[in-house]
Design goal:
Layout: H1 18-25, E1 31-32, H2 36-45, H3 86-100, E2 119-120, H4 125-128, E3 148-155, E4 171-172, E5 184-185, E6 194-205, E7 211-222, E8 234-239, H5 246-250, H6 254-258, E9 277-280, E10 285-288, H7 300-312, H8 331-335, H9 350-361, H10 374-386, E11 396-397, E12 400-401, E13 411-412, E14 420-422, E15 440-442, H11 452-456, H12 470-475, H13 482-490, H14 493-505
Antiparallel strand pairs: 1-12, 2-5, 3-4, 3-8, 6-7, 9-10, 11-13, 14-15
Amino acid sequence: MPAKPLLLATALCTLASAARAQDLDDRHLTIVPRTAEEAARIAKVTAPPTDFSKPQPFEARPAGAATVPVRRDDLAFDQPSANLGIDAGLDFRLGEAMFDKLWVSSPTSTLASDGLGPLYNARACQSCHMRGGRGHAPDGPEDDAISFALKLSIPGTQSEQIYEIEGFVGTRPEPNYGRQIQDFSLPGHPAEAHIDVAYDSFEVALSGGEVATLRRPTFSTRDLGYGAFHPDVMFSPRVAPQMIGLGLLEAIPAADILANTDPDDADGDGISGRANIVWSREFQRPMLGRFGLKAGAPTLRQQTAGAFATDIGISSPLFTKGHGDCTDTQVDCVNAIHGDKDVRVFEVDDVGLDLTTFYSANLAVPARRDVDAPEVLRGKEVFYDTGCASCHRPAYVTHRLVDQPAQSFQLIWPYTDMLLHDMGEALADNRPEARATGREWRTPPLWGVGLTERVSGHSQFLHDGRARSLLEAVLWHGGEAEAMKQRVIAMPPEDRAALIRFLESL
């Protein structure tokens, strides 16, 4: 795929070259620079295929040496990277214990596990990311949908702008409910609300007389515990994404991601990928956004700390409030007894945060299945011919990392460009996040997508779980992907089936 021009400026500096971009966004990693010979090898091994009669070299191992064999049970995403050493493997298990820990309220004698809430969405990380897999939308009024969240914000004022980042859209928490609806609470504290969803079904005619039925969701809240919403409130429903391969995504050179940006569609292909540039709490500077459905977090550590704070109400060195997402109007929540200010200082300290981050970084990507099957190979050719690879960029080689051998210099196949794309009005949440508009989403990685039902017990896709199959997910694409969707609708049924078969093999 040819590199696209980078048009990104900040008040502090202008990213005039890929090298400068790397200096800005990868300085938190201990990197050995690539040689010219390595760069040539990388360009060759990540080039688009020209022969679809056989798999590409190393394609069956999407995470390189970190790839693990495919399990036949629902633990396919709950394995450590294959190339972890003994000591790192022990750290992985300690991080897993942090990830699985059920937090309890304060005060308690269990000082290492107290600080829950008082308002929260779940008591443990694994409650939302069960077995490392994907969450689901509410399924009826009795389903609390722990793995689903409703994000909130209102338009920001001048004080919310970050002038170091061009195009940054500042927002504020909703005054009564904060950044996210918490639908659970400790005794004595009303939950913020309960979330319901209703669906309106409609049919899409496909070639060959086939018909697909899509469902359009409408989300609503009931039993509001803290008054009415602000009149300018913006909502964004989010299903918890799968967790595999996150450390490898963080190890992709920023320069390789930024080289594919084309915000003004200068090459005229209809694809206008943009980088989300966000503020790093840890490094106090702008960084490339990589994590979250709109790439709103720059590092996996910040993403992890944010989830502790917002989902569970747990403070950390990056999000220091013991009451989590509670607002100033929720006085009882703010003034409740919290689990911080003891020997840990925060409810999860640096060690606990680092172990949880390490675990999240090393949940392994399973090997591909049926990579040489004729229908899968035909589906791969359809994938490229249709233009899907324009956003779902197949392959990268990660940085050489001095202190992260499991992620160092691996040829990986995540099928994402890590950039923001306008996905059309039908998928818009109309809620900005940093530089992302209300119509933009980060291209989600596709590795492991074919194992979703095995791991999570369902086949719900997209940011809010509306799609019940991979075909439905494709048919919801719009905006920059409208032309690709129309090609899928019009192609011969056997090619459409082969495309889905290829996606299922990832």
